[in-house]
Design brief:
Length: 476
């Protein structure tokens, strides 16, 4: 539906007068600058860049005013139609008037801590989703306070006025759909209070908190505003008499939801009871509880400091046991958490010590989550003990068969990288690879059509095979 803004004879005349005044000021400025240039030739030569810049800016502004004057003259006493879909002011406005998030003309421009300007409702949504960086520059925000940008708002208003467009209404642009009201905050406190009451009240409150933290980012963020909120939430899980399994499932899932919020990750992981309770859930919860506990550890381990903290807690053993059990709901979440944790060198040692190599190799042989597990195996194969265990557990033929049969370039790359490490560590394994090459040409094929890394590793093994053959022939 097209909106029609009628420019009256009086409004049009006023706009023309204002434009003419502005043009007169610019022309006078240009003439004065030119006169100054003639009178102060030596000075201008020494500041030529500055002068030219100002002079050209004035010319550009004069051109813009002339263009606006022409536009108003043409539209005088006619209807100026703005079609919502095809003649949107957002499409023709200056770039600095558009919100970097919405790509539309800003209605309520505000400044964030990095100095960038955004339209209020869109940056509010960004912040409520848990982001703590500037969308445009990716700089970390020193605070989340937003300040009205009155200068840009006034410039937008003038731009709209000149073109006969209705100025945006800042009040109408504000979005409050995810904002916590006073009633929401009271509800939040009430639900936490119920965690210290009867089992039925705990069960109902846990279920509601699970749903609220799933649907509303603002509820997730609210847990980060107090050091006491998480301990109060988890109080039913600390009872000596044990916890109702449904309450445990809802509270562990709520903890997962809270952990999704970036600014909560450090607080959640460093709350003393959290990681031990997640490990308890991994060991004794329902399949869904165990899966969500593993997912929570994966989410928390996005921070390097949390990787170390979780690794020291003994969580890797429980995750590896969960992977070994192979339940379809829990195995993938366990694998994801193990991968994230093993990015830290000290956790690789812990994983190998807890039997990760044999469990992972067994699952790969069974064809379970091969992509994820090969990535983990490639990561921990840099550990000396892992390199020694792999051949003993029959890993070499398994990896070679994947290279031959898999169509996944990443899996083939991970396999050859592991085999290369094995060969560097134990030259006796070159015999197996030589036989594979003679029978199938596996390494030569990969050296031709693999990823760049796979080609390098395959070529490296082939070079070692050739050197070993030359040495054998020479000794004969």
């Amino acid at each position: 539906m097209a909106k029609t803004v009628v420019i009256s004879e009086i409004d049009s005349t006023k706009i023309v007068v204002e434009l003419k005044k502005e043009l007169l000021i610019l022309v006078k400025a240009l003439l004065e600058d030119e006169q100054d240039n003639n009178n102060n030739e030596f000075i201008i030569r020494n500041s030529n860049t500055s002068f030219n810049s100002c002079y050209l800016d004035a010319i550009d502004k004069a051109k813009e005013v002339l263009s606006c004057l022409k536009e108003v003259k043409l539209k005088k006493t006619t209807s100026f139609k703005v079609d919502d879909d095809h003649n949107d002011p957002s499409l023709c406005c200056p770039p600095e008037f558009r919100c970097p998030l919405s790509k539309r003309l800003m209605k309520d421009p505000v400044i964030i801590s990095t100095g960038q300007t955004y339209d209020r409702p869109f940056i509010q949504q960004w912040l409520k989703a848990g982001h703590r960086v500037c969308p445009l520059t990716q700089q970390v925000l020193s605070h989340s306070v937003i300040t009205p940008n009155y200068l840009i708002r006034e410039l937008i208003s003038q731009w709209c006025k000149i073109r006969g467009i209705e100025s945006p209404d800042p009040v109408a642009s504000t979005l409050n759909e995810d904002e916590l009201t006073e009633a929401d905050r009271d509800q939040f406190v009430s639900l936490l209070d119920k965690m210290s009451k009867t089992i039925p009240e705990q069960k109902a409150a846990a279920k509601e908190l699970r749903l609220l933290t799933k649907r509303m980012p603002s509820f997730r963020a609210y847990f980060g505003e107090s050091n006491e909120a998480i301990p109060r939430l988890l109080k039913p899980l600390t009872q000596r008499s044990g916890c109702d399994p449904y309450i445990q499932e809802d509270l562990i899932t709520t903890l997962l939801n809270i952990s999704i919020h970036d600014s909560n990750k450090k607080l959640v992981a460093e709350t003393p009871m959290v990681v031990p309770l997640l490990i308890d859930a991994l060991n004794s919860g329902s399949p869904e509880t165990r899966s969500n506990a593993a997912a929570a550890l994966f989410t928390l381990s996005a921070l390097d400091s949390n990787k170390t903290l979780i690794g020291k807690s003994g969580a890797l053993k429980s995750l590896i046991d969960l992977l070994d059990e192979g339940h379809p709901i829990t195995a993938k979440d366990a694998a994801s958490a193990i991968f994230n944790l093993c990015i830290v060198q000290e956790n690789k040692s812990r994983a190998v010590r807890e039997g990760a190599v044999s469990v992972i190799l067994k699952k790969i042989k069974d064809g379970v989550h091969v992509d994820e597990l090969l990535a983990i195996l490639a990561m921990i194969s840099t550990h000396q003990r892992a390199v020694e265990e792999l051949p003993e557990l029959g890993g070499v033929p398994v990896l070679l068969s994947i290279i031959r049969e898999s169509s996944c370039a990443r899996n083939r790359e991970n396999c050859i990288a592991i085999l290369y490490t094995i060969c560097v560590n134990d030259r006796t394994k070159l015999r197996d690879l030589r036989e594979e090459e003679r029978a199938y040409g596996t390494l030569s094929l990969l050296a031709e059509d693999g990823t760049s890394r796979a080609k390098r590793k395959a070529s490296g093994i082939l070079e070692r095979l050739n050197r070993a053959r030359n040495i054998t022939q020479t000794t004969r």
